[in-house]
Amino acid sequence: MKSASSEKQSEPLGGKPRRTDRAPLLAVDLDAGSETPLHRQLYDALRRAILDGRLAAGARLPSSRGLSFELGLSRNTVLSALDQLVSEGYVEGRTGSGTFVASVLPDEAAAPQPGQLRPLACQSAGAISARGRTLAGPLPSARAQRGAFAIGQPELDAFPFDLWARLLARHWRHPASALALGGDPAGYAPLRVAIADHLRRVRAVTCTADQVIVVSGIRQAVDLTVRLLLEPGDQVWMEEPGYPGIRAVLSAADLRLVPVPVDAHGLDVAAGAAAAPHARLACVAPSHQYPLGVVMSLARRLDLLAWAREAQAWIIEDDYDSEYRYAGRPLAAMQGLDRDGRVIYVGSFSKVLFPSLRLGYLVVPPALVDAFRAARATLDDHAPMTPQPALADFIAEGHFAAHLRRMRRLYAARQQALLGAASRHLDGLLDLAPDEAGMHLTASLSPSLAARMDDTAAAAKAARAGIATTALSGFYMGEARRQGLLLGYAAFDDAAIEDAARRLARALG
User: Fold this and answer.
1) Per-residue pLDDT for 502 more than 80?
2) CA triplet 231, 233, 238: central angle to 5 degrees?
3) How high is the pLDDT of residue 23?
4) Cα–Cα distance between 246 and 232 in angstroms, integer?
5) Rounded to whole angstroms, how far apart are CA atoms 487 and 462?
6) What pLDDT, on the 0 to 100 scale, is given for residue 26?
7) Which residues fall within 8 angstroms of residue 377, CB to CB, at 6 or more apart?
8) Same fold for the domain at 4-110 and the one at 404-508?
9) 112 pLDDT exceeds 50?
10) Homologous superfamily assigned to 404-508
11) pLDDT for the residue numbered 381
12) How far is CA 200 from CA 193, 316, 334, in A?
């Protein structure tokens, strides 16, 4: 074993290391006035860091020169501490590489292990607030699952990551200081221009770039909206069934949720007006309702806008995946019909590009622009700047439109593959119908299967067989009116879909 003392033995006090050290920074507290020698204090501090896990097995220690410079100690003092750690087996020297924490420690059995510490009182479940329990509750989502038929997952192999990397490098290899500093709470100006141009052209949204606020996603958009426009206790119409992520955000804001049924024509506005005529907000996904996939009729859209005008209420239009429409052009947004400034339009790039991008946007009425910008600055300053210039170029240069065209063709073919596989293997168990848009199908339990189990049990059986389905009943606030399974198809090729359908049939049969 190489001794730490094999390095050069002398170094002037405060002498600079020869090159930048890439080892972790260490917090070491030394007392020059203590009776304990400095080399012993340093030894004790490093030993504690190792046993506490702050320096993990295999972690590289700063060089003796680096420690000497950072701590203001002579190099001999540092080497004395390191040599003692080497001799006792806490660290080991590697010729030409440096000094590392040993993989097996002499006191490892006595060291506290993760999960063995006595929980503090503040860690108990009772310390979590009512709002916190809402936020921390489970969501009926397959986000953590992998493999068919997990929902909400795009086909990543089809995304042009090489192009994306070049766009990132274009702006960040030598970034302008204004870009690195950021600072605009509404987001990167060219990105807002690109978003506004795209929405006007493709979604018939009436907006300018000034009305666009860049956020991390739809849930942050909803959270910002309700913080700014609603008071605790206000009533909110929520689609039934509806997206649990938005439901949790609304509940955590101390709002009273009113479930409004969704039928073949979308949100039942008359039912909502009867249940809560003075609600302050309605959350809807009119172009492709989640999770049922229905499209809100024009008559219902006009009724909803009329209700909002009369009740002086707001509408959040969730347009989470309108780009993926396979029959004709994407439907026009309801926001384009709004003449009273009651609609806040929200969208996201996470599903249409890749989930970890975490960029979304709001389009707010002109009268609310200043208030939303100020609130955005107060709560979170601005969205991460690194991907915003690349995304602006991706949209403005036509790559976004080209990607959407490719993915529409691919996803339409994969939906057909799922329908075909279901016909061959799941007939008599699940009933599926084609959808003109989206990335999943909602399959109803057949009468014979529903007589044997509910959709929660069916999803559990599927999970034990390695199939990632999601129970429809989990999207209801009240009693579920329908039983079914959500089957995602976007991220899986024909062979994977065929195999998963076959295994799902065996699990449910």
Assistant:
1) yes
2) 95
3) 67
4) 16
5) 11
6) 72
7) 185
8) no
9) no
10) Aspartate Aminotransferase, domain 1 (3.90.1150.10)
11) 80
12) 11, 18, 12
Q: Name 220's Cβ contacts closer than 8 Å, sequence gap at least 6.
A: 360, 380
Residues 480, 241: contact at Cβ < 8 Å?
yes
Report, at the CATH architecture level, how domain 4-110 is classified.
Answer: Orthogonal Bundle (1.10)
Give the per-residue pLDDT at 405. 93
Element (H, E) at 250: helix 244-252
Sheet holding 235-240, edge to edge: 212-215, 360-363, 343-348, 314-318, 281-284, 235-240, 256-263, 266-267
Are 432 and 425 within 8 A, CB to CB?
no
Burial class (CB in 10 A: 0-12, 13-18, 19+), 243: buried
Beta-carbon neighbour count of residue 93 at 10 Å? 20
Does residue 384 carry a pLDDT above 90? no
Query: What region, left, alpha or beta, does residue 358 occupy, with left being phi > 0 and alpha being psi -120 to 50 degrees?
Result: left
Q: How is residue 261 written in tokens?
A: 């049924």
Alpha carbon distance 76, 67 (integer Å): 11
Asked whether the beta carbons of 383 and 215 are under 8 A apart, the reply is yes
Are the C-beta atoms of 99 and 61 separated by less than 8 Å? yes
Inter-residue contact 255 to 314 (CB < 8 Å): no
* CB-facing half-sphere around the CA of 192: CA atoms within 13 A: 21
Distance between CA atoms of residues 364 and 19, nearest Å: 52
Query: What is the rounded distance in angstroms from the CA atom of residue 16 to the CA atom of residue 329?
Result: 65
Give pLDDT tens digits for 135-177.
666 554 444 567 889 998 899 999 999 999 999 999 999 988 8
213 beta partners: 362
How much is the pLDDT for 467?
Answer: 95
pLDDT at position 106 is 80
Q: Which residue has the higher pLDDT, 279 or 479?
A: 279
Say which amino acid occupies 271: A
Q: Are 93 and 1 in contact (CB under 8 A)?
A: yes
Give the tokens for residue 339. Answer: 């003449």
CA angle 304, 352, 199 (to 5 degrees): 50
Helix (H, G, I), strand (E, B) or coil at 344: strand
Answer yes or no: are the C-beta atoms of 72 and 78 closer than 8 Å.
no
How far apart are alpha carbons 247 and 222 in whole angstroms? 10
What tokens were used for 176? 């302008």
What is the four-CA torsion angle of 502, 506, 507, 509, rounded to 10 degrees? 130
Q: Which residue type occupies 313?
A: A
pTM recorded for the entire structure? 0.81
Backbone angles phi, psi at 169, to 5 degrees: -65, -35
Q: Where are the domains of the chain?
A: 4-110, 183-384, 404-508
H helix and E strand count, the chain? 17, 14
What is the architecture of the domain spanning 183-384?
Answer: 3-Layer(aba) Sandwich (3.40)
